[in-house]
Amino acid sequence: MKILQTKTAPNPRRVRIFLAEKAIEVPFEEVDILKGLKTPEYTRLNPFQRVPVLVLDDGTVIAESIAICRYFEALNPEPSLFGRDPLEIAAIEMWNRRLELNFLFPVSHVFRNSHPAMQAREVPQVPAWAEANKPRIVDFLHILDDALKGRQFVAGDRFSVADITGLVTLDFMKLARLDVPGACANVMRWHGDISARPSAQA
Predict the structure, then answer these.
(1) Which domain does 174 fall in, by range?
(2) Residues 99 and 6 in one domain
(3) Sign of CA dihedral 1, 20, 140, 146
(4) 63 and 145: one domain?
(5) Are residues 70 and 137 in the same domain?
(6) Do 194 and 138 belong together in one domain?
């Protein structure tokens, strides 16, 4: 079993943090995001040419970071990071989807369409699309800040996969050359708290 990753990318980091929270050790193999993902060998594993990819001992391939996390959650239910009862499961799913669709994806669009290092990967880069996503990120951060008032974690009273998605995206903003609005004090408090968890260093 191994996980193919590019360590600086946010989605492999989601998986690393998830596994660290569960104290699961899986070997990781580094893939060059600019060259290695386009090889025929990698494309056979994942035709979308994205990381991470989990390759099981029998050759079975699981792509997409949340699918990989769900696989390990099913094998190792505790501590639960996807929820323990119907309401908690729904709340975590809701917030994780919100964070993906309204935060991680727009930040990725900004990075992929504006950062010089991505010119060879994102063809063509569309700077106008990067600019169009910037106000959407700000709007979402204000919504998230309001949701975090009086709440320690994104989806309730326990750390979950939704917090992991939020953490890696907020950190990814630095690479995308984006700043958190100064008024989002709750977001910054939450980020400081979860960044202090040992798993955040994974």
Answers:
(1) 86-201
(2) no
(3) positive
(4) no
(5) no
(6) yes
pTM above 0.85, yes or no: yes
d(CA 28, CA 3): 5
- For the stretch 25-70, pLDDT in tens is 999 999 998 787 889 999 999 999 999 999 999 999 999 999 999 9
Q: Which of 75, 105, 134 is the last residue of a domain?
A: 75
